[in-house]
# Entry
Amino acid sequence: MFVRIGAAVRRWWQRPYWFPEMWSALVLIGFSVWSIAAPIPLADIPSFYEATRIMPQGAWEYTTGTVGVLQFGALLMDRRWLRGAAAAVATWLTAAISLGAVLSFSSPLDVFPLGFLGINIFAVLRSVGNAR
# Structure
């Protein structure tokens, strides 16, 4: 019984880490849809004020959505370098959002993007050095 559990854990460990990257892509797409549909501009939300100083107001909505779709597409194509490139751009976007959220800290939910920042950094490291 313990041999079967060990073999299952080894098989699970050797699979590519697609699940967190998929959630990262879905969060970027969801953020894009939410920010387009929101009646309040992102610059008026304290958590995103610093991020809107990096890129203009309208660019955030479409850039995050485009990168989310590219990251999801890279997962479906399962090319390591493409996944790494999409994760690198997603890392930059989530780092900018995380930095603005942490600097303002108007809500405990502002630390939420830090988790996706870690996921994308791990995906970049995995694509570059085949980390596990």
The two ends are 26 Å apart (CA to CA). The CA atoms of residues 50 and 123 lie 26 Å apart.
